[in-house]
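example protein:
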Amino acid sequence: MKIDLKIEAEMEYKYPQQTLPSSFIRTIILVFCSICALLIYADALKFSLWPIVDALDPSWVATIAAGQQQGHNFGTDITFTVGPLMTLIYRYFYPGINALYILSPTILIISLTATTIFAFSTTSNWRIIVFLLTLYLSIQSSDATLVVLAVAFFMTCRIFVQRTSVYLITLLFSLSLSAMTSAKFSTISIVIPTLLLLDIVLVNNKRLPVATASYVFLFILIWILTGQNLSNLPDYLQSGFEVTRFYSEAMSITGPAWDLLAWTSLAIATGCLLIWYKFRSIQKGENFVDESAELLVVGAALFLSLKHGFVRHDAHSMIAWSALSLLLAWLFMCDHALRSRVATMISLLLLALTLLVGHFSAIKMAPHSIITEKISSGYHQMTILYQIITDYDKFISNNHANWKIAAARIRENSPLPNIDGTVDIIPNRQAIIIASGQHFVPRPTVQEHGAYSPYLIGKDRDFFLSDRAPKYLYMAPGSIDGRHPASAEGSLWPLFLAKYEVVDSLSGMLLLRQRPVPLENILSPPERSEARFNAAVPLPPGDRPLFVSLDIRKTLYGRLLNFFFKPPPVFLVVTYSDGSSEPYRLIPAMASEGMILSPTVTTAPDDYLALAKGDISLLRKPVSFTVVADRWGPRAYAREIGVSIASIDISALRASYRPPAADSMLGQRMKKIGSLISALTPNPPALTPSPEGVFAHAPASISLAVPNAAALELEFGIRDGAWQNGNATDGVCFSIRDSVSGDILFERCLDPLNNPADRHTQKAHVALPAGTAKVDVRTDCRQACSWDWSYWSQVEPVPAGAP
């Protein structure tokens, strides 16, 4: 009797060697559930395509697509987080896209559906229903699907390891993973370990270890089919590892602590549950190697989910929550070590908590809306696939028409001139270049925030020093995540100042053009010193711009934090002579290559123009800076910080500056607002040059000399954000007053919240009494000063006798 009980207990954990008995009802259930799974995978990965959009992420997607059209190679010409099959995840349509890219999701959708059907055939109906409910209740994303994909295939291969069908599943596995890493390089951190562990399991079960070999073959095949050269593959791997290695340091942001704590607790509980029951399973006779391999694969998936979701802790956290719920669903359905009553109850509890806390609490979406939306969306995606197959030309034509409409809208909102040469753009608005039809030649890192390590910055530097450097460059300071505005390709600004001159201003940017002969040696040899965290570092006085590099090195503790999660954030605080200060996010690896720290360059293009002109008298100059970290920061970084300060030869810039042509937009702008900017005593952020002209947050006053002027041409207004999105300015009064007599020569009060006619830029012509020598250009609050974001776009003196 004891022997029989022992055998029964062992059989409870034994992977089945045959599918459950077939029946008509069972077949109907499997077919229905398989169709449901197909719809959810189609909803997650999508066949639909979106047109060009003027936004940060869509811009880099469009840029890489444009680079591929021009025959650019990943690893040399393109160095980013994605690979040549990125349309598998980022469904962007562009003219000339081929069928391989359009149909790329089919690889994963078919493979996942087939694997799910295999898994369905080995489990009970109610576990299948729980699995499907989880799929429909979780917030699906392509990233979460990619994270869990490896676990799903691995577990299915384990179930069928004693059958020849394991080779078919392994082939689907390798094809999907090769497509995965061809789309997004960072997934390689789970792909390679999973493949190697699967080969170990295959060998342990007297099967041929074909997983890794077939993956390598299929990856190279995809690489060739996407137009890449085999000779560039080592560069792609090297740049991919570089992008991945510094991602946590450069792109991390902090989110709600409870969110991270809740996810980590549930992930640890999942890991502990699996470890305990795997240990019991091994005690009961299951193979130690196979069970340990599965534990490692699940651990790798949890690790990657943590990194994907909480390094950049914003909406990315949904990737981690979705991946955890999907992982629990696959374990619940496929892992026979969790089939006991207690294990089943605990698994269901963890699954319910993950769905509840991660989805319904965090994003406040009702369960029924998720289900109905996904059924509808999945069905819609399948109808799109049907159209692609049956009428490919019409599908392309419709998407091309949508792309043209979107591009025309971008051109209307952000008009650009016709220029006779290649062009790149520093602000993250690459879509406006593509929509304009200009000859776009992007740098390797594509966007300014992507150049976040010495290797990646070196790629961009080599590009701008080479013959491939664009003839024109659109320029505007500014970055993401609270970084210093001058950190936008900041280490290359001395190169830009030496190689390019300002020729125009448009759409909130400056247009730079290559100089006939670049300036030489504008950067002085650096002076080196050392500093420490939280200790002020004085800046040398003088009128030259200062280029500062910081060598902030991680300790062993910091490197471990960077690998397993993310290092503590570092901040740069610049201090001025009046005691005021400004904090900025600092990326240590970027800081090692330097940026212009004095004068302070804001997001206004005029600040870069002041540098290019060699006239920085209106810009604020810090007297010191401090490198700051939280209490854990100094443990993660070395005590001593290397400081290197060089100066830029401002006299060379001043001597080489050529005023823009009078008929250029910049020439016209300087005619309209240049006199007011020259008279300005900046007081950022309330009173400062801005994309509109001069931002003058009420109350503000500027004294302007107007000798021999008979009139003033005015343009002024209140920024749209002052009365939109819940902001509620009560208006601003704009006036021109005689500086001597105090007489009001012009006044108009705007109330854009309540009067649509007062919105956007207004115009006025003001006649000046004879003998007026100086006027005060004023903005005044009405009752309150909140949201009084007023500006002047034109204060242009009109000489007597002018037409």
